[in-house]
């Protein structure tokens, strides 16, 4: 225990991004709560601005880099060496800015647009990477008060979290395991999930939702086949396609799905004994109350026997 | 000195981008040059005769040829000038092809560069001295490292030629990968039936000394006289006593040791004989699993051994062998297919490597030759083969073709259909590469006669559905996504350089490419030689190869050694260091830096100390020359004066 | 990838000497040639058995006498044909590099690299990069500056 850095010393800049303000506010709240529980100090980037998202980088890579780079520069001014963002889209933009900075041929143009002092001495990571690599599984395990015993959860990673491999530099691009390990650490049973990186249809949800119906249907079907009671995700868009569109998907596939889709941070919060309502469980479209009933009774019974409730 | 310069046009290879006539004309301006010409193919027979004629006619004392790389034709031209009566070291080459004409199309710059290179060669030649080889006896014994089929073939050929052979194998038995195979393509010959007799022969030949369970520790010396240290790893069984009866294996209580011969499809005992036909057929204790070593108690094998061969106190032993030449035949390893997370190799027991399937097919394998799934022992009905797993894929660092997988898949599919006529075999492939005698016909038989279904496309994912596996991939000919449900998935795992190849290369002072395969001396014309004299290559250590090619190379390496040993002495290279005793101050720094121990000190009658080079040991690196403070030690044919003369021409 | 170097200055003015060990880098340069990898034409190659043969004098003298750049290239460390020759070379050349300034020589005019016989493409890169650097530095200012040009043998030594 002594050789690990004291968690309270962990100070991380936090880039929330637009999805987490509205649509995925429960991802934001649960991430903040879990970080607090793990003694991680989140420094919100003052006056943070849009990362540029898809429109910026499809229009001009330099524009995208400058938009995201502004947030990095402010984070660095706050004395942070790491900036964490839960949204994979934001993460891609932040990492893209760092890549442009490190390219000697583009650096000058980038700094010219940025008009801020920036030395590139900052690292962008996801909340998943923060929990998996910086915090570590032992620290997560120690914080658990209500292990998700007997709950079968499959992790769904989607496309962006570990890919492209040389760009994201995190986990295995074809068979990522970081969420599997976290779920195991908080006591859930995690069946092997073959579709953990299969496409969910992404933004086709808006324009061609029959595509999302077909692709997401396959993922939900596979989750059911491997006996999962719930799915863990770490991306607002994945969550939207799997949860918000589950009713549409059921229509497309001519069968009823009822699988709660929670953010990994929500699962961690539950296992840490945090208040389910505060974690935003009630914000889900596919309601997870049945899951909670089951969860509470099971874990309390288990906890009572080990005397884990302090 | 009277110097002649011959500028080669090499057809248009040089003349296309270098004005060779102008280079020859310019050469006449250089000091001591009395003759210069440009010739179309200087290396051709008339070209060489022209040089010889001019040497005699013009009374030349030195020759410069400006042509291709000296690594290509220096020996050719040295022989040519020698035939005309010059010393072979009164010759210099300027490389105006690889270093000039082929790397730039700017004819003016190329011509100027060629002129300067010729000038450098002429300037150096003016300081050249005739050098003479000395002769040293050859130790006519051969060391062969690796006893797979290439090494065995080389050993038998050398042995048949009457040479003493030292054969070193790191595993407990010889036979290599071929011993693990069930059948061979394209004849469906039984692998162990054709290899077995060769293995037995190897063991019975009196002039072959076999060190199994041994590795090369260090190599010293040079062609004709190598001194090799071999580490005999402790087997904890006295092999002189062990009869291979197998009593100990039967009674050993530790049953969970990995069975590497069966590619870990089954377990072995902690004391084990790898397979029934093993040569030598001797038991070996796996220390990591033996209860005597792990728990400090047991000793069953020691009690039961009828010849008292068990020796728990055995230590590694170093033996020294002296040989005149070395054949490296260390073979290959299989690509680790668990790198492909999407195929689930290592996670799903029914996703196996090509060599594991080979063991399943083999009658001496874990299932007695019945095709069964490793997970539940049931008979598979649908079997999918995935080609190019660890071949032709830059994303896993293996951009090369392994060359054997297309053929072994076809063979395994045919054997599957033979064993289980009702089964369905599918092959996902990128291209079919079958360029050998009767190879393509064999693949066609698999498709047409045996009805193996070939699907052109890559597999994206393999995942379990119930107790079966779903193989999800593309059919690029139909342009659709396909899913095949399978009971067993066989990955055609590719070939990679054997682990430890780089370390051995460093001991032997031979080079290897970025993938760890050893470099031959010339890719076309010297395929079994290395750049280190006296060290030869055979088999897949040089690059992926099938059995016939490995055997052919084994024989070729043996033939090279027979040729080398046909003489009783070899001429040493006279390009060695030489001490000028008048200027040597006896500081002996040269002794400290010499990597080969080729320099010693001697005391003259007046009591002064001088360095002395052992010409037969010196390898000619010139490290001492650069180190020597008064420059008393000079590397012949690359002396300070010669190199500075070259530099002088550029300083003007 | 850097291909050949566009140079406004007349090419004649730049001259680079390359010391290439026979076993690795000379072979690598040959490989580059056989593969027709285009390279700048400024380099004049001196073939030596090993980079360990390189006397600091071979580097310093040409630079003093006006040659524009010197490049030494050999086998990768640990892959030396003579086991350790390039390790001695590495130490010697690194020290030399830091001494060049004391001799009034711009140390950027000298460099060393490791290129194996199979690395034709890497050789092209090394030559192109070094040539570009020397072109940017321009001709050696020491050329013809008061140092007497060698006539017959000031550079050479009596044995």
Q: How many domains would you count in the coordinates of chain A?
A: 2
CATH topology of the largest domain in chain B: FAD/NAD(P)-binding domain
Overall number of structural domains of chain B:
5
In CATH, the architecture of the largest domain in chain A is 3-Layer(aba) Sandwich
The low-confidence parts of chain B are none
Number of strands of chain B: 34
- Quote the average pLDDT of chain B: 95
**Roughly what is the average pLDDT of chain A, rounded to an integer?**
88
What would you report as the Rg of chain B, rounded to the nearest angstrom? 31 Å
Number of helices of chain B: 18
Percentage of residues in DSSP E strands of chain A:
5-15%
Folded structure, characterized:
The complex is a heterotrimer of chains A (310), B (652) and C (159). Chain A has 310 residues and is an alpha/beta fold. Chain A folds into 2 domains: 9-128, Glutathione S-transferase Yfyf (Class Pi), Chain A, domain 2 (Up-down Bundle); 145-306, 3-Layer(aba) Sandwich (Rossmann fold), CATH 3.40.50. Chain A is 49% helix and 9% strand. Chain A has 15 helices and 7 strands. Chain A has helices at residues 25-37, 53-59, 61-77, 88-102, 107-114, 127-135, 137-143, 165-168, 178-185, 204-207, 209-225, 236-244, 246-253, 264-271, 289-306, and strands at residues 11-14, 41-44, 82-85, 123-126, 153-156, 230-233, 261-263. In chain A, α1 links the parallel β1 and β2 (41-44). By secondary structure, chain B is α/β, with parallel strands linked by helices. Chain B contains 18 helices and 34 strands. In chain B, the strands form 12 sheets. Chain B has a 5-stranded parallel sheet with strand order 10-7-6-18-29. In chain B, strands 20-27-21-22-23 form a 5-stranded parallel sheet. In chain B, strands 2-1-3-4 form a 4-stranded parallel sheet, with helices on both faces. In chain B, a hairpin with a 4-residue loop joins β25 (468-475) and β26 (480-486). Chain B starts with a strand and ends with a helix. Chain C has 159 residues and is an alpha/beta fold. Chain C has one domain (13-137): Rossmann fold (3-Layer(aba) Sandwich). Helices cover 33% and strands 14% of the residues of chain C. Chain C is built from 4 helices and 4 strands; from the N terminus they run βαβαβαβα. Chain C has helices at residues 25-34, 56-64, 85-100, 120-137, and strands spanning 16-21, 43-48, 69-74, 110-114. Chain C has a 4-stranded parallel sheet, sandwiched between helices. In chain C, β1, α1 (25-34) and β2 form a beta-alpha-beta unit. In chain C, α1 (25-34) crosses α4. The longest helix of chain C is centred in the last third of the chain and has 18 residues, at 120-137. Chain C is globular, with a radius of gyration of 16 Å. In chain C, 54% of the residues are buried.
């Amino acid at each position: 225990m002594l050789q690990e850095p004291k968690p309270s010393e962990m100070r991380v800049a936090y880039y929330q991004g637009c999805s987490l303000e509205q649509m995925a506010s429960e991802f934001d709240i649960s991430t903040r709560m879990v970080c607090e529980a793990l003694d991680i100090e989140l420094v919100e980037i003052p006056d943070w601005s849009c990362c540029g998202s898809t429109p910026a980088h499809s229009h001009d890579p330099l524009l995208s880099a400058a938009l995201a780079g502004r947030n990095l520069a402010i984070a660095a001014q706050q004395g942070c060496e790491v900036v964490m963002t839960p949204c994979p889209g934001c993460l891609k933009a932040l990492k893209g800015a760092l890549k442009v900075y490190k390219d000697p041929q583009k650096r000058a143009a980038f700094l010219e647009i940025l008009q801020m002092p920036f030395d590139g001495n900052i690292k962008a990571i996801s909340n998943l990477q923060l929990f998996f690599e910086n915090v570590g599984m032992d620290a997560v395990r120690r914080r658990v008060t209500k292990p998700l015993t007997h709950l079968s959860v499959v992790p769904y990673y989607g496309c962006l979290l570990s890919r492209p491999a040389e760009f994201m530099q995190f986990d295995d691009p074809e068979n990522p395991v970081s969420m599997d390990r976290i779920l195991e650490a908080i006591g859930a049973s995690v069946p092997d999930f073959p579709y953990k990186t299969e496409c969910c249809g992404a933004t086709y949800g808006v324009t061609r939702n029959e595509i999302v119906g077909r692709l997401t249907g396959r993922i939900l079907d596979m989750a059911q086949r491997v006996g999962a009671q719930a799915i863990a995700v770490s991306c607002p868009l994945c969550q939207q396609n799997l949860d918000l569109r589950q009713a549409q998907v059921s229509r497309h596939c001519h069968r009823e799905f009822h699988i709660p889709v929670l953010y990994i941070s929500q699962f961690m919060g539950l296992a840490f004994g945090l208040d389910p309502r505060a974690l935003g469980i009630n914000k889900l479209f596919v309601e997870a109350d049945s899951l909670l009933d089951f969860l509470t009774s099971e874990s309390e019974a288990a906890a009572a026997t080990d005397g884990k409730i302090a | 000195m009277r110097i002649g310069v011959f500028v080669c046009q090499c057809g248009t290879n040089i003349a296309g981008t270098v004005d060779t006539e102008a280079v020859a004309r310019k050469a006449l301006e250089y000091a001591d040059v009395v003759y210069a010409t440009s010739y179309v193919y200087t290396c051709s027979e008339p070209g060489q005769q022209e040089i010889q004629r001019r040497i005699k006619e013009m009374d030349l004392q030195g020759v410069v040829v400006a042509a291709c790389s000296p690594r290509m034709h220096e020996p050719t031209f040295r022989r040519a000038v020698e035939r005309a009566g010059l010393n072979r070291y009164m010759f210099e080459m300027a490389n105006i092809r690889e270093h000039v004409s082929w790397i730039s199309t700017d004819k003016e710059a190329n011509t100027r560069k060629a002129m300067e290179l010729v000038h450098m060669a002429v300037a150096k030649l003016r300081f050249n001295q005739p050098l003479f080889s000395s002769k040293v006896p050859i130790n006519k014994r051969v060391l062969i490292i690796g006893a797979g089929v290439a090494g065995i073939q080389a050993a038998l050929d050398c042995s048949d030629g009457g040479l003493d052979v030292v054969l070193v194998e790191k595993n407990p038995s010889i036979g290599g990968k071929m011993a693990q195979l069930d059948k061979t393509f394209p004849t469906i010959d039984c692998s162990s039936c054709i290899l077995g007799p060769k293995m037995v022969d190897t063991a019975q030949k009196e002039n072959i000394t076999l060190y199994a369970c041994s590795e090369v520790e260090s190599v010293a010396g040079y062609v004709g006289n190598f001194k090799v240290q071999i580490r005999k790893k402790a087997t904890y069984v006295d092999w002189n006593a062990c009869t291979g009866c197998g009593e100990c294996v039967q009674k050993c209580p530790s049953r969970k040791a990995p069975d590497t011969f069966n590619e870990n499809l089954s377990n072995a005992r902690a004391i084990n004989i790898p397979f029934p036909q093993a040569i030598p057929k001797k038991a070996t204790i796996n220390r990591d699993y033996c209860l005597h070593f792990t728990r400090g108690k047991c000793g069953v094998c020691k009690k039961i051994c009828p010849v008292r061969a068990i020796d728990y106190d055995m230590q590694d032993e170093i033996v020294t062998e002296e040989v005149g030449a070395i054949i490296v035949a260390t073979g290959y390893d299989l690509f680790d297919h668990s790198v492909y997370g999407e195929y689930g190799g290592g996670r799903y027991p029914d996703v196996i490597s090509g060599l594991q399937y080979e063991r399943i097919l083999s009658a001496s394998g874990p299932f007695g030759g019945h095709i069964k799934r490793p997970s539940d022992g049931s008979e598979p009905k649908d079997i999918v083969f995935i080609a190019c797993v660890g071949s032709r894929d830059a994303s896993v660092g293996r951009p090369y073709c392994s060359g054997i997988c297309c053929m072994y898949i076809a063979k395994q599919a045919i054997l599957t259909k033979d064993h289980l006529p009702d089964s369905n075999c599918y092959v996902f492939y990128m291209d079919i590469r079958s360029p050998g005698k009767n190879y393509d016909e064999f693949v066609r038989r698999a498709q047409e006669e045996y009805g193996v279904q070939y699907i052109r496309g890559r597999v994206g994912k393999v995942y379990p559905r119930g107790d079966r596996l779903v193989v999800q991939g593309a059919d690029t000919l139909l342009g659709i996504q396909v899913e095949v449900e399978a009971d067993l998935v066989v990955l055609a795992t590719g070939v990679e350089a054997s682990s430890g190849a780089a370390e051995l290369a460093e001991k032997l002072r031979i080079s290897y490419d970025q993938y760890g395969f050893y470099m031959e001396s010339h890719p076309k014309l010297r395929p079994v030689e290395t750049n280190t004299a006296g060290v030869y290559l055979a088999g897949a250590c040089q690059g992926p190869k099938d059995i016939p090619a490995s055997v052919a190379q084994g024989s070729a390496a043996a033939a090279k050694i027979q040729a080398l040993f046909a003489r009783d002495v070899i001429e040493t290279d006279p390009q060695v260091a030489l001490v000028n005793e008048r200027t040597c101050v006896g500081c002996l720094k040269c002794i400290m830096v010499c990597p080969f121990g080729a320099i010693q000190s001697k005391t003259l009658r007046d009591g002064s100390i001088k360095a002395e080079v052992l010409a037969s040991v010196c390898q000619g690196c010139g490290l001492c020359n650069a180190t020597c403070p008064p420059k008393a030690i000079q590397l012949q044919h690359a002396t300070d004066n010669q190199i500075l003369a070259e530099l002088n021409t550029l300083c003007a | 990838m850097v291909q050949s170097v566009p140079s406004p200055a007349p090419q004649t003015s730049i001259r680079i000497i390359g010391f290439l060990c026979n076993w690795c880098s000379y072979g690598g340069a040959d490989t580059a040639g056989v593969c027709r990898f285009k390279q700048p034409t400024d380099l004049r190659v001196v073939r030596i058995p090993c980079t360990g043969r390189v006397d600091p004098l071979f580097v310093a003298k040409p630079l003093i006498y006006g040659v524009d750049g010197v490049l030494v290239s050999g086998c990768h460390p640990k892959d030396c044909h003579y086991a350790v020759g390039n390790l001695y070379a590495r130490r010697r050349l690194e020290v030399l590099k830091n001494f060049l300034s004391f001799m009034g020589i711009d140390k950027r005019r000298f460099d060393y690299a490791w290129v194996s016989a199979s690395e034709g493409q890497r050789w092209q890169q090394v030559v192109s990069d070094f040539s570009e650097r020397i072109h940017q530095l321009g001709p050696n200012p020491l050329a013809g500056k008061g140092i007497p040009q060698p006539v017959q043998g000031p550079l050479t030594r009596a044995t």
